[in-house]
Amino acid sequence: MISWELKGVEFINCNCDYGCPCQFNALPTHGDCRAIGAYRFDEGHFDDVDLGGLNVIGIFTWPKAIHEGDGRAFLILDERASEEQRNALLSILSGEHTEPGKTIWNVFAATFAEVLPPEIRPIHIEIDVDARTGTVRVDGVLEMRGEPIRNPVTGAELRARIDLPNGFEYSLAEMGSGSSTSQGPIPLSLENSYGQFARLHLSNSGVVRA
């Protein structure tokens, strides 16, 4: 198994209501799952291949709950990455060189019926986990906007978090609101639905905990 480690931040937007039942082993809000994930890896390696400073987008759909399978996946890789870096990222995001069930990417990989060929494009990502804000853009393909959940009466920002001591993606995630659109092989339109902002630190063995 090739040693790898990634450290960075993520902004996830899916079609579930705020909180997302999937985080609690419950069925998705609307019976299906449609999601976009934006990842900025500030530090990382795959063996001796440096992966720091690279961005990745994942677009995913499942007709029912994720664990019921038959999903589709489409990845967009940072155009700044070399071929060696792209291959390394694809290996990690495909769940390879990972202990079974230890990362979200390894778990997801077992649920896909179709993985579309990745595209290489410029990716713009701004994520502030503590502020619960995010702006993601891939020109002509995708736009994401994340913001805090707001009180429907006063407009005040609401702060809520999910703490998963034994999770396979993050230790602590800030909850927000997301709106996204994507074109291309997996077109999606999400508006004011579940938004998740988290710091990531993952390796072959799963979440690296302090």
Helix and strand topology:
Elements: E1 4-14, E2 33-46, E3 49-50, E4 54-62, E5 71-78, H1 83-93, H2 104-109, E6 112-115, E7 119-121, E8 124-128, E9 133-138, E10 142-147, E11 149-150, E12 157-158, E13 161-163, E14 172-182, E15 188-203, E16 206-207
Parallel strand pairs: 5-6, 5-7
Antiparallel strand pairs: 1-2, 1-15, 2-3, 2-4, 4-5, 8-9, 9-10, 10-14, 11-12, 13-14, 14-15, 15-16
List keywords for this structure.
210 residues, mainly beta, 14-stranded mixed sheet, two-stranded antiparallel sheet, 16 strands, 8% helix, globular
Your description of this structure?
- The chain is mainly beta.
- The protein is built from 2 helices and 16 strands.
- The mean pLDDT is 97.
- Counting DSSP E segments of at least 2 residues, the number of strands comes to 16
Alpha-beta content class: mainly beta
Q: How many angstroms separate the termini?
A: 24 Å
Task: Report the oligomer.
Answer: single chain
Radius of gyration, in Å, reads 16 Å
Percent of residues in helices comes to under 10%
Helical run tally: 2
List low-pLDDT spans: none
Major sheet: size, sense and barrel closure? Answer: 14 strands, mixed
H/E topology pattern? EEEEEHHEEEEEEEEEEE
Strand content: over 45%
Instruction: State mean pLDDT (0 to 100 scale).
Output: 97
| Shape field | globular
Counting structural domains, the number is 1
